[in-house]
Amino acid sequence: MRKIMTFIRFEFLKRRRVWPVGIVALLITISLAVGFGVQKHNQSVFVQDYSTQLKKRYPNENSLGRSELTSFQKSEAAYHDWFFKSVAVNVVLNGQGTREIPGFGVRLYARTASGALSDAFARTYDQYRYMRQKNITPMFPDSLVIVPVAGDLDKLSDTDKQWVMRNNPHFYVQALPFLWSLLQSNGVVALLLAFGVLLSGGQLAKELAHKRAHSHWLTLQDEPFPAQVGIQFGMMLTTMIQVVFVPLLAVTLGIGLLFGFGDGRYPVFSYQNPDGFGSKEAIMPLSQYLTNTLSLLFLLTVFLTLVMIILSMLLRNGWLTILGTILVVGLSLITPPIPGLPLTYFHLNDIVTGIAQEQAGSDALQAPAVFINLGWWCVGLLLLIILITEWRRIVHRLQRIHLASQKSPASL
Length: 412
Fold this sequence. Notes:
The chain is mainly α.
């Protein structure tokens, strides 16, 4: 054990001389924190602009619908209540509102409530009723829960689509919701993984290519090649975790301490099939969503690390290994939902919420099936590494035998 720890300390020393991983992780954390600041600023701007719209829409005390302006100016809790009751008018009361709660507003207009966005209204009502039962505070300002992949916008013109999306934003201004927003973005996840690959992908390839005393030192210590690969796998995976997970967790902790963590029971839209007969819309607690998503991201990190090991052994070129692995990450951004294909699994949000399963019409894209399948892919890559290692060992042995046979006659 002491010998292995010596090897690991030396590998960390080598890595620090090549890449300042801690500084890169810090810069990524700062970038994510700036993104949170932008969220807070955008929320403030939207609230100010919307308040101005309400004042222009309801200039007189007796204006029908002025209750929206009154509640918006009173408090966040008052507006939450007005919004829920207004949605309920359109969902369960067939539009039969009162003067205080007429069922419409600047962002809740009757045409979408009665037809084009009826599913979004129903979904929003279900989520708000769930939050009231659990005593969960909604995001502010309240907005419809619109899911484009569910066909919510299909009946609207392009102009109306832009209007609806612009006027129903969601601002993730607490720790857990902000982490949720980051994991929803395929682009953010791909960038984090790409930075991790850039910092960790070339080391083993360089060691195999140069075989210098410093870079190939484990072999000089009479350690077998599998031990070298194992230690390098650990170093690569550690670097990936530092670049991908540490910034996510650090910014979540910092935001949580300053602005609150939010409620882990917050409703997340998902497709589920608890009875096994087709999927249907359901509510997933935010804590479950984050647990499943981060677990899937960790498995993908292991998968990419194994890919880097294989490319290093085959190409023996640091930059080609990095480019090849980044190409895998890039292709995942444009890969449609395909059962059994790991590139599909990089769409974390679609996998965990069941959207990919719904789009592809395949149970193989359910989150549990994806975890199992990705695990088998990792096992397969590990077996491939073992085969390449054994092939390399056999080739080297044959080379030594051949050289020995050439030297034997000369010695005679």
